[in-house]
Amino acid sequence: MRKIAVRNLRLCTKDCLCLYVCPTGATDTENSIIDVTKCIGCGDCADACPSKAISMVPQEYPPQQKKDKKVIASLNRMAQSKADGENMARALAESAQQDGLYRLMRAVEKAERLIAEDLMREAGYMLPQSQNARDVVKNFIDNPPEGMPEGVADKLYNLILR
Predict the structure, then answer these.
(1) DSSP state of 56
(2) Which residues contact 24 (CB under 8 A, 6 or more apart)?
(3) How far apart are the C-alpha atoms of 144 and 60, rounded to whole Å?
(4) How far apart are CA 104 and CA 50, in angstroms?
(5) Is-contact 35 28, C-beta < 8 A?
(6) The pLDDT of residue 130
(7) I need a surface site. Which of 8, 18, 51, 143 has the fewest CB within 10 A?
């Protein structure tokens, strides 16, 4: 099974050892991307990374297994709880009189968002927030794929913008 290197941006400390050991120059700390077209799957970058931000993963994954409805419902409840926590932290940050409290609540808000995203991803749902994802959905609005129900791309685009 062919593997490629991927970088977890949350763990990357920009030590840049991967730049020196990668025989093909696939790692790039300027934009934190590992070029999968250059990656030969040797694992040298993952072995050298002191923060363990680089992992070797299969180039192709098997299809995701179906999750039991109870598991999905539980994950959705936990994600909703995290979304509620995110909203509370945002409200507290906006009303904070002290800079320290403001920064703390913004950090809590972001942490709640990241955990909720992980839960939604695990439940099989994820709305990517990147510009690339927005461009893809915008293209669906302008050029709907055959069989796409009317208005779905617009609704999805509005959800991504939240």
Answers:
(1) E
(2) 38, 39, 40
(3) 27
(4) 28
(5) yes
(6) 64
(7) 143
Identify whether the C-beta of residue 32 lies closer than 8 Å to the C-beta of residue 45: no
DSSP letters for 64-84: PPPPPHHHHHHHHHHHHHHHH
Distances (CA, A) of 36 to 23, 44, 134: 13, 14, 22
* The amino acid at 104: L
Identify the pLDDT of residue 129: 62
DSSP state of 142: H
CB 123 within 8 A of CB 67: yes
Q: How far is CA 72 from CA 61, 64, 75, 76, 153, in A?
A: 21, 14, 5, 6, 24
pLDDT value, residue 46: 92
For the chain (162 residues), the mean pLDDT of every run of 10, in chain order, is 85 84 83 84 92 88 77 84 92 94 94 84 65 79 84 82 66
Cα torsion 91, 96, 101, 107: sign: positive
